[in-house]
Each structure stands twice: as C-alpha cells, then as structure tokens.
Design a protein that fits this description.
The structure is a single chain. This protein has 95 residues and is of the alpha+beta class. It has one domain. The chain contains 2 helices and 5 strands. It has a 5-stranded antiparallel β-sheet with strand order 1-2-3-4-5, covered by helices on one side. It is globular and about 40 Å long. The protein starts with a helix and ends in an 8-residue tail after the last helix.
C-alpha cells in the first residue's frame, strides 16, 4: 500500500469516526499497517467492530466490515455510520 493510499484511507476513517462520535459511539483510528477504525458501543463495550477502507472489484472505495463484506461507498458516510450503530446496538435497545 502506498503512503498516499494509506493517507486517503486514514482520512476516510477519520471522517467516519467524526460521524460515529456524534452518534455516541467510541472510535479509535489505527494507522499502523492497514489503517482501520475500531468502533465500540460505550454502553456495551463487548460490542465493537473494526472498519477498513478499500476498493471493491469495480474500483469503488468502500467501507468494509471486519468479516470482509462491504458496507457502502465512502461517499455514503452517514448511511455507513447508521448501519454500524445498528449493528453495535443490543436488540433490546432497538425496540
């Protein structure tokens, strides 16, 4: 991974972290090796997820779940944040 590509990924992850922070989720950007964003639900710390940024097969930059599935393109940051919040919210709190 080139330095410019890593910088771009970190900037996308940092921007997503800002949105997630406004949704009361904890975030930490790690830029050693492959940049990733660790997201946690502070009310239920065992609920956490590691998010990365990479291009899909068509070359579209996407946010990715830790299990290797794309969430959505980086242009859809707010929709991505809402999906992550949903995943990190206990079912009983969604009703």
């Amino acid at each position: 991974m080139s330095g410019r590509q890593a910088t771009s990924e970190v900037s996308h992850l940092t921007a997503l972290a800002d949105v997630l922070g406004s949704l009361s989720l904890g975030t930490q950007v790690e830029d050693g090796g492959e940049p990733k964003l660790i997201v946690t639900n502070p009310q239920v710390p065992q609920l956490s997820e590691s998010i990365t940024v990479a291009a899909d097969a068509d070359g579209v930059r996407q946010y990715w779940w830790s299990w290797g599935k794309p969430i959505a393109p980086v242009a859809n940051r707010h929709a991505v944040a809402m999906r992550i919040k949903y995943v990190l919210t206990p079912k009983k709190n969604l009703q």
